């Protein structure tokens, strides 16, 4: 897998300190990207967000999305790695 950006479509009510981490191979694995999550409005307000990966992904990996900052960080519609 190769890509430069993590892109997601999400809805959130988190006001501060929340993020989604893309980790490689396990939930404790190396962080490939961290996307800060800020509430775009309500839990039903969807927005597309993206962030540059902190490392180039090569080879085959399991991808783990880890939510940080609370019990309900975001509702996720889709996730993709884009060049």
List strands and helices in order, with pairings:
Layout: E1 5-11, E2 18-24, E3 31-37, E4 47-52, E5 63-68, E6 75-82
Antiparallel strand pairs: 1-4, 1-6, 2-3, 2-5
Provide structural commentary.
A three-stranded antiparallel β-sheet has the order 4-1-6, with no helix packed on it. Strands 3-2-5 form a three-stranded antiparallel β-sheet, with no helix packed on it. The chain is mainly β. Helix content is 0%, strand content 49%. The mean pLDDT is 88. It is globular and about 40 Å long. The protein has no helices and six strands. It starts with a strand and ends with a strand.
The description of the largest β-sheet is: 3 strands, antiparallel
Kindly report the average pLDDT value. 88
Low-pLDDT runs of 5+ residues are none
Radius of gyration: 12 Å
The counted number of beta strands is 6
Beta-strand proportion? over 45%
Q: What is the tally of helical segments?
A: 0
Class by SSE composition:
mainly beta
Main β-sheet, spatial strand arrangement: 4-1-6
Tell me, what's the shape?
globular
State the main characteristics:
single chain, 83 residues, mainly beta, 3-stranded antiparallel beta sheet
């Amino acid at each position: 897998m190769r890509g430069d950006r993590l892109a997601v479509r999400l809805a959130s009510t988190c006001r501060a300190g929340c993020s989604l981490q893309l980790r490689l191979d396990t939930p404790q694995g190396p962080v490939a990207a961290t996307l800060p999550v800020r509430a775009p409005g309500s839990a039903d307000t969807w927005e597309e967000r993206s962030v540059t990966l902190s490392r180039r992904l090569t080879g085959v990996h399991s991808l783990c999305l880890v939510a940080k900052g609370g019990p309900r960080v975001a509702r996720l519609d889709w996730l993709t790695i884009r060049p």
